[in-house]
Amino acid sequence: MRFLIILSALMLGAETIAQARETLEEAAAFARQLVNSVSIGNMATVYPADHASLAGEPFSLQEYYASCHVNGSLTLLFLPISRHSQNVLLSPTHAASVSVWSDRPAASRPRVSLIGNVTVFPVLEETPDREAIQACYVAQHPDARWWLPGPREPHIAYWARFDPHSVYYVGGFGSEHFIGNIPLEMYQNASFPDHATEVGVGGRVLVTQD
What we know:
- This is Pyridoxamine 5'-phosphate oxidase-domain-containing protein.
- Residues 23-187 form the CREG-like beta-barrel domain.
- The protein has helices spanning 2-18, 24-37, 83-90, 130-140, 184-188; strands at 40-46, 58-64, 74-78, 95-101, 111-121, 158-170, 179-182, 197-199, 205-207.
- By secondary structure, it is α+β, with helices and mostly antiparallel strands.
- The chain has a single domain (24-188), classed as Pnp Oxidase, Chain A, CATH 2.30.110.
- Strands 1, 2, 3, 4, 5, 6 and 7 form a seven-stranded antiparallel beta sheet that branches. Strands 8-9 form a two-stranded antiparallel sheet.
- The longest helix is centred in the first third of the chain and has 17 residues, at 2-18.
């Protein structure tokens, strides 16, 4: 009996979401705008299978990022000393997720989770669009100028790119806002036209990627 009650509640919740006034297209635009308007999120990775005590356990911590790409990929500073970086490098797919929420977190406020993988550029001179990426990143994180990749950083650092392949969005309460997965292509094209280079939110230079 209890199972039927729970099942009915879940079905009612699904129906409520389906009747939300916020459309999928609107949710994609709101999700993209949210990620673009914030530059600090929460990254989650997984300890490698051969870790001595935490094999397979999740690890989550605050992470800087910058929205520098037309298609919604994120620019990261990748420091091998960090736990996240170690987990990413030891993951067969370099998997990670990044969650972002509004500046006033609440149950009625939007949040989004991006699941994807990280591409690291270990050779500084071969980093795609390096000057534009660096300018974009420092514009959002002025304090990061002290640990940028190069000969003077306190720790070894590389540029990296986070490419989402799955987007899950919670706009707020389901009776009014969309809750669920957003198609990747719709998310990528939600805010910016797909052309080579343009100036984005807050003057950030947005670049395409190969």
